[in-house]
Task: structure prediction
Amino acid sequence: MRVFCTEELHASGGDGSFYLAKAEEALDALLARYENSVRLIYLDPPFRTGESFKMKIGKGKNAQTVVLYEDKLDEASYLAWLKTVLIGCHKLLDPRGSIYLHLDYRMSHKARMLLDEIFGESNFMNEIIWAYRSGGRATRCYPRKHDTILFYRKSKKVLFNIKAVGTPRGPERRNHMKRFIDEDGRIGFSIRSNGKTYTYYEDSLIYPSDVWSDIEHLQQKDRERTGFLTQKPEALLKRIIAASTEPGDLVLDLFSGSGTTAAAATKLNRRFLAVDQSPVACALLRRRQLGITSEPTLTENAVHALSISYPADHTPCRITAERTEKGEKAFVQLKKTAFSGKESAPMYVATGYVDGSCFHALHTNCAPKLPVLLPIPKGYTPVLHVVSVHGEQAFFTLE
Result:
């Protein structure tokens, strides 16, 4: 029998929540629960490219191309939409909070005017240039090899710790400096100029400026790659999160995409809220988060639950499955899945149980190949969760 759920819960993969929704539509629910509570917001919205972004899922004859999102708003509509999102973000931030808006040459200059209006010109912090070496080489103009990240605070109480993102100067000698070892055994370098002596130690920190050329764009074969075309590297988000939050703080990303913000936040022991309108983004975040072990936990008894919320899905679905037993253990073998009459391999399957409208996942497979075998949990009415490559999903009891 089919049941309908609007939330799934995992014992690991957090501490955080994902909402399957458009950014502007998620704001009311977020404000009801998190107004003045978010420490950091990172936004990587559509850049107004005029394109349709797609992703190939699967391999060989089972491969399917899925539309992730359409980026085709006219300028007036885009700016009105972005203003709505930014107003909501301002309300969500706590007094020590800050926002990083990631765009490119197309709309960054006009987005800055919106940020000045909503956050105040006096709360501008930085225009960060993320320079990278990737892609083709233009000949009709200078190649465009950077994005712009606009950094604003909510108030003068902002939390910003540049020491958290400093890197040791290291053993390299600079500008004809003289190397020395002080009485405490520290290695340093000194130079005398205009009657003054300047001294630097090997273990002293160098801080990033507002031009970030030391973080590379993800390459095609990078291990972080998920297949999401606009994916950003974890190193970029780790710098932002480390500088503008402390362990346990809440980080929000309204355009989750490949799930990089959630992954970086988890690894730095921050809590996260992630929102995206694409079911594929939901699947990517789930797979990425379930493979993460936080380092280290905030406390021995820290809860790292992952919750995922979405509208109930009534897409017609049929499955072919059978129950098998091995000793005292029971399993379900899923052989076929079909959504709206079209048979295809699933993108994700899980077994667990349902409490109200919440599915508690106990055994998961984020890259299933049919037929797939999953344990049936004891002590509950077991439920099977199946998700298609297009993000359609269904829940079936296994009685």
About this structure: DSSP finds six helices and 26 strands in the chain. The helical segments are 23-34, 75-92, 108-119, 234-244, 260-267, 279-290.
